[in-house]
Amino acid sequence: MKRPLRVLFLCVANSARSLMAEALLRHAGGEQYQVFSAGSRPGSPDSRALAALEQVGIATAALRSKGIDEFAGEHFDYVITLCDKQALECAALPQADEVLAWHFEDPAASSQPAAFRQTLQAIHERIKLFVLINSKEEKALADSLTPLSLFKSLADETRARLCLLIAAEGELCVCELTTALEQSQPKISRHLAQLRAAGLLEDRRRGQWVYYRLHTLLPEWARQIVQQAGQADAAAVAADAARLNNMGNRPDRQAQCA
Q1: Chain center to CA of 133
Q2: Coil, strand, or helix at residue 187?
Q3: How open is the CA angle 251-227-200, to the nearest 5 degrees?
């Protein structure tokens, strides 16, 4: 079974929109997602948001307002903001492979009696699309990656070393990999592109750096093969890791707020 996707919803107070999104995705996504929410200036859950959820049969007992700092140092597949981006731009956002902006008007600022119910429905529609897209991506990768294509991708020594080191370290950027493998940047980049095209790796950009990791949707059988290969060739992986650990000025993965 593949690991669940980690998703964090953010808004300012974490009292309505982000709490509703947390509850909706947890309900719709089941065990495929680990879902959280937080705010840059957390308040307390809005009773009208909780009532809107309960009216559609979604439990609210576990929902509470939380600050972003509660998730400091954690990594997410998706961080999704639900309010005006500027309201969160100077918050120290947790690390994420992808940051999405879903803007929904604050129902607490509306005089309409049905504002919370309408906001809940709008968020629900976006959640359903989000789950559908991720399900299609998973199926496409599962259909395209076969044992033959996996072994073909790892038949080259450089690609095998890249894949095993990334699996061991979790995530590495190009400059770290050139140091660890003692090979040129163009050669490393070419092989990384081939591994990404094969569906073994995915990348994300933070500032000037591009980081690579095992694909989030990599089938469990393929993930186990890579992990077992790394264990079988532990000495070679350790040698590459030693050069990596001796590298000076390694990129900082923490998000910065000016």
Answers
A1: 14
A2: helix
A3: 65
Q: How many CA atoms lie within 13 A of 98 on its CB side?
A: 13
Burial 228-237 (b: 16+ CB within 10 A, else e): eebeeeeeeb
Question: What is the per-residue pLDDT across 201-256, written as a single tens digit (0 to 9) for each?
Answer: 988 776 677 889 998 878 889 999 999 999 999 999 999 999 999 987 787 654 43
CB 68 within 8 A of CB 91: yes
Residue ranges of domains in the chain: 5-142, 147-245
pTM of the model as a whole: 0.61
Q: Rounded to 5 degrees, what angle do the CA atoms 163, 225, 193 make?
A: 30
Complete edge-to-edge strand list for the sheet that includes strand 5-11 = 33-39, 5-11, 75-81, 95-101
Q: DSSP class of residue 93?
A: P
The CATH classification number of 5-142 equals: 3.40.50.2300
Helices 174-181/157-169 angle, 10° precision: 120
Cβ-based neighbours of 134, under 8 Å, separated by 6 or more: 5, 32, 217
As its CATH architecture, domain 147-245 has Orthogonal Bundle (1.10)
